[in-house]
Amino acid sequence: MANYLAQFQTIKSSSDRIVIAVEDVSDLWLNVKDSFEQRLPVKKACLNNKARNPVLVENLPAEFIQTTDSRLRSRFPQEQYLFWFREPYATVVLVTCEDLDEFKTILKPRLKLIVQNDEREWFIVFVSKAHPSNDQATKMAKKVYARLEADFNTKKRERCCKFDLHGPDDEFWDDFDSKMVDCIRNTLDKRVQFYEEENRRLSEQRFTPIWNFCNFFILKESLAFMFEVTNLHEDSLREYDELELCYSESVNLPGKPREFGGLETGDDQAALLNPGFKALTQIVQDDVFREFEFRQYIFACQAKLLFKLSRPVEVAARGYAFVVSFSKTLALHENALPFCFREVWVITACLGLIKSTSTQYDGGVVAIDSEKEFYRLQGDLYSLCRAKVYEACLFDWLWGWNRKKSSQQCLIKHAILAKASYLAFDST
């Protein structure tokens, strides 16, 4: 499964909305495309979160894609399940028919064949081409649609709605939106259940020889990403929190030595707010990721979700705790890291957190206690930054005095320290 990591990252980076498939049986899509796309994003979609509690999503990003599109081409079963988060959440079947016999002999058998897949959530939109002034055509359209409803609706669920090409009314759009959201919700519930069962199965192997964190990561982040795309950000954040905990347990398991990371150019520049700083394929080693890059990746994903939830104070709180904790981890690997690495990393991490949380923060919409907490955290970050500037400047002076040499790396660090010194001391 780890072999799919590159493909997983590519799909994830190119998917920012759910897909609604269009099965254009009667070549109608070009006639209705503009009207349908005006309904996006889906307004006030009631979805279920991981705990199966209803959550109202104000704007659900989505796009219509025809089933003939290459983006929806069939994949091998394993790939389909791995990347289930990007498969269509609903299928809209577009049909029209102006003759009852044609419906019975041609259209009905074809529709039965299309919708026989029980795993796919679908509903049928009957497009009436009859002009309101043509009574005969209007009556025939009503008869065909009545037959369609009788054949495809059930007592438990209505699957059909009627679109008037010459002017759909508000009642149709309400019906259309309702059926589409029902399909999306049902699909999401099924997929959440699948990912939960798979993650539970892999979690049970955590302390066995066959445990593979990379496999677990792909499934866990697939679930997190699916929640994120459907704007269930709280659930997505919870998945990343659990992933962080599981990684902490895995990376500390006894076994063969693993590379820590941090030895590449630019690694001393903290990447706490940039999940795409490095491709995951670059930092994977055997069955697990290098600790230096992966911990920053997880935090960056968490911070992105917290910003979407309008919680910059929590980003600052988590960020400060992470910097303090990770600084201790860096100290354990200090002998293998470049000179002054830890100090520069902490300085850039603090400055990055200060800038991003200040930009996202709006003191006018929070409680007084939250405002006090935010500025206290900002002060803590500045204080930590100042402390590391003192240490780095001292180390830098001693190193330069003893070695009597200069290098590009030294010049870069001087520039960073100069900027950090200005910002840290200017805050006072």
From TrEMBL:
InterPro entries the record matches: TRAPPC10/Trs130 (IPR045126), TRAPPC10/Trs130_N (IPR056913)
Gene Ontology CC: cytosol; TRAPPII protein complex
GO biological process, one term: intra-Golgi vesicle-mediated transport
All copies of domain TRAPPC10/Trs130 N-terminal, residue ranges: 15-316
A Pfam family the protein falls into: TRAPPC10_1st
PANTHER family: EPILEPSY HOLOPROSENCEPHALY CANDIDATE 1/TMEM1, TRAFFICKING PROTEIN PARTICLE COMPLEX SUBUNIT 10
Name of this chain's protein: TRAPPC10/Trs130 N-terminal domain-containing protein
